[in-house]
Amino acid sequence: MGDITLPKNDSVVVGFDSADDAAAVRLDDGNILVQSVDFFTPIVDDPYLFGQIAAANALSDIYAMGAKPLFALNIVGFPINDLPKKTLSTILQGGADKAAEAGIPIVGGHSIDDKVPKFGMVVTGEVEEKKMWKNSTAKSGDVLILTKPLGTGIISTAVKKGLASEESEQAAAISMAMLNKHAADVLSHLTVHSVTDVTGFGLLGHLTEMCQASHVSSSILSNQLPFLPGVRKLAKSGIIPGGTKRNLDYVSEFVSFSESLSDVDKWMIADAQTSGGLLISLPESDANIFLNKFQYKASIVGEIVANKQHIISVI
Length: 315
What we know:
By secondary structure, the protein is an alpha+beta fold. It has helices at about 45-65, 85-100, 150-160, 165-175, 180-185, 200-215, 230-235, 240-250, 265-270, 285-295; strands at about 10-15, 25, 30-40, 70-80, 105-115, 120-130, 145, 195, 215-220, 255, 280, 300-305, 310-315. The longest helix has 18 residues, at about 45-65. The chain is globular and about 55 Å long.
């Protein structure tokens, strides 16, 4: 999209040029319509679980903007002549059940015959403009909270190779299928400066976007980062997704790593996530309230600081 010239529109509050989580357009009543689309190929063998994870991942962008989801449309690619139709129905049922958990209907969609199965959603939500979260408003002095552990990319790659333990596979599945709804609900009662969700670009990629957009830097405490079980063992054995390696290559010019961190540490921290948690920039007092109310494995993982030579320092 960077090479495409598009006309400006005064109703667009957040567009593709800001690297935020979803598009935001101002309605006539002053509220903001928020919309995002996401889909991908299966990362688990269970078609129902794949549908749930894809739906949770698509919904995450709406929660990251502080919006309430309203409805969704399915996006499907499926080899209808090569795989049983029951498999497709099971994928769609997983997505439908996850949408129901989010409290929204699926009102249609589009499908094509495709050699490789793909599933996802377009999700539409709404939020008052003054309550909308962006990735561009982090403030120096904020702390950073991460609401889900890292490592889904490494574990998903290990699952495809038949090398993941049952514990790792189940923990990753539970994490990826979990909606970010509860985290967003708790945050809605607090002072929140900036939010993004951690997905394909990994923690460091999405934090780089947040810092660049907010004109700040950040410090990450590597010993405070939560990881799914078995991730380090898998990374040590060389199970590193291509997307994770590309993430680390991309952020290398923006990130200063402590000399004590190994290549394995760096890959784990840069791991490409699917349906990851929210990364939240907020005052420390509100962060402590959030941690007391949120029941999952959230952690304070760092802080926002004034602009420095490196956008992120990992210590």
